[in-house]
Design goal:
- The chain contains 9 helices and 8 strands.
- The protein is α/β, with parallel strands linked by helices and 263 residues long.
- The strands form 2 sheets. Strands 2, 3, 4, 5, 6 and 7 form a 6-stranded mixed sheet that branches. The chain has a two-stranded antiparallel sheet with strand order 1-8.
- Strand 6 and strand 7 form a beta hairpin.
- It is globular.
- It starts with a strand and ends in a 41-residue tail after the last helix.
Length: 263
């Protein structure tokens, strides 16, 4: 029998959408079962540094003293130097750092809630700009950024919670390691497609038995729920000699390596 999800429990971020796309069973483990597995130490270190860099830029934006934090790690020193020497272009307007917005979508007479957190949101008179800081070691291709759930949900959420038309909004990803920016634009056609895709996805979530994705040795072996997974077609992977390697930097979707985890 399919499981009916209580719509009141749905409060989704881009990370949840990524998990659903990767494997509905993985989505159930992390979202409904509330399983929180620790990252390997080396990956936790990267996560911590990414969060500290976001905090550094937030404190600078608020006019706080960042001297000690900026000098606390060689990576932070290098990233902040890049930010000083090659900052992203930012429009004029009201600036809001680490700001959260929520919106709802109705599907089959039930409301589902989404949350997005913008590293920096600039609201001008006629246009708005979303900025997101990335501390990945490699640049992410523009096409991958454009199609990612982070980009799509951040764009959609701003239109849904403001007076701006899609064409008046842009999003800038700034890469700390390279001091480079990737600028993305938005359109009404993109907005309507995201709406349709979210509607279809939520309709599936309402009635599902959380099936595992078809057997995929590569993605399964990288999954943090590798040893917990009860999918029958994956049992052959579980052995003492299995070569399990969980590396966030090499996973298929860059958003599997979040710098700030949104609950």
């Amino acid at each position: 029998m399919n499981t009916v999800i209580d719509p009141g429990l749905i409060y989704l971020s881009q990370q949840h959408l990524n998990q659903w796309d990767e494997c509905p069973l993985k989505f159930r483990y992390s979202f409904f079962d509330q399983v929180r597995l620790p990252f390997p130490p080396e990956q936790q270190d990267k996560l911590t540094l990414g969060s500290q860099f976001h905090l550094l830029l937030q404190q600078q934006e608020l006019g706080l003293d960042i001297t000690d934090l900026a000098a606390s790690h060689p990576k932070l020193i290098a990233w902040y130097q890049q930010f000083q020497q090659r900052p992203p272009q930012i429009i004029l307007g009201e600036r809001h750092c680490e700001t959260r917005r929520t919106f709802a979508l109705e599907v089959n007479q039930h409301y589902h809630y989404f949350t997005v957190v913008y590293d920096l949101l600039v609201l001008g008179t006629d246009q708005a700009q979303i900025l997101d800081w990335k501390t990945h070691e490699k640049l992410i291709p523009k096409t991958k950024l454009q199609s990612s759930w982070q980009t799509r949900l951040y764009f959609y959420g701003l239109v849904a919670t403001s007076h701006y038309e899609p064409e008046a909004i842009s999003m800038t990803y700034w890469f700390a390691g390279q001091g480079k920016s990737t600028i993305l634009n938005y359109s009404r056609a993109q907005h309507e497609k995201t709406y349709r895709d979210l509607q279809q996805k939520l309709a599936k979530m309402q009635h599902t038995n959380f099936p595992a994705q078809p057997k995929n040795v590569d993605s399964c072996s990288r999954c943090e729920f590798y040893y917990r997974c009860d999918a029958k077609q994956k049992h052959h992977l579980k052995s003492e000699n299995a070569n399990h390697h969980f590396d966030l930097e090499t996973m298929a979707d860059f958003e599997a390596y979040p710098e700030v985890i949104i609950e």
